[in-house]
Write a structure and sequence with these properties.
Flavin-dependent monooxygenase ArsO associated with arsenic resistance, 187 residues, FAD/NAD-bd_sf, oxidoreductase, alpha/beta, FAD/NAD(P)-binding domain, 26% strand, Auxin_biosynth/cation_transpt, single chain, disordered C terminus, 3-stranded antiparallel beta sheet
Length: 187
């Protein structure tokens, strides 16, 4: 059975919660958030332990709910969990969206948690589950370890090794490696 909504938000991380919890609700729209994660917290549940958000509260808090300055990953998960509960957002966890297609004047969102028909879809999926690895000269023949930020866990994994970090993303607060399209190659 197809459910009807004004808006379907695909992704229950920071962007999805901000769009739904503030903007859609303020406009009185009927919406649902489909989140592939089994629990609240978005991709922050999978970040390395030493990661700190690298922006001040004024730039990183979700609308209507101030957060702490430079929080650790676990604190961000708690913050997102609290935001979801505080605003009683209609999030379906464990609901991976598989396809969006036009269906007349509406959009049809097919997910493993059922099909929804909506006037609009907000894609707030982020990049964590499909990291981008750019082409780099010699990358295919490099014999050392190469990994993307999503596979990084701890600096202890690289103790005593020669490391090069390549990337163009933002740099978190000290004690963390840079977030980037691809993070480290070691010899």
């Amino acid at each position: 059975m197809t459910q009807h909504r004004d808006v379907v938000v695909v992704g229950g991380g920071r962007a999805g919660l901000a769009a739904a919890g503030y903007h859609l609700r303020r406009r009185g729209l009927d919406f649902v958030i489909l989140d592939a994660e089994a629990t609240p917290g978005g991709s922050w549940q999978h970040m390395w332990d030493s990661l700190h958000l690298f922006s001040p509260t004024a730039y990183s808090s979700l609308p209507g709910r101030p957060g702490e300055t430079y929080p650790e990953a676990g604190n961000v998960v708690d913050y997102l969990t609290d935001y979801e509960k505080r605003y009683n957002l209609p999030v379906l966890h464990g609901a991976r969206a598989g396809a969006v297609r036009r269906d007349g004047a509406k959009l049809l969102v097919k997910a493993d948690a059922g099909t929804r028909r909506a006037r609009a879809v907000i894609s707030a999926t982020g990049t964590w589950t499909q990291p981008f690895l750019p082409a780099a000269p010699g990358r295919s023949i490099f014999a050392g370890r190469q990994l993307h930020t999503v596979n990084y866990r701890s600096p202890a994994d690289f103790a005593g090794q020669h490391v090069i970090v390549v990337g163009g993303g933002g740099t978190p607060a000290p004690r963390s490696p840079p977030t980037s399209p691809w993070t480290a190659a070691t010899t």
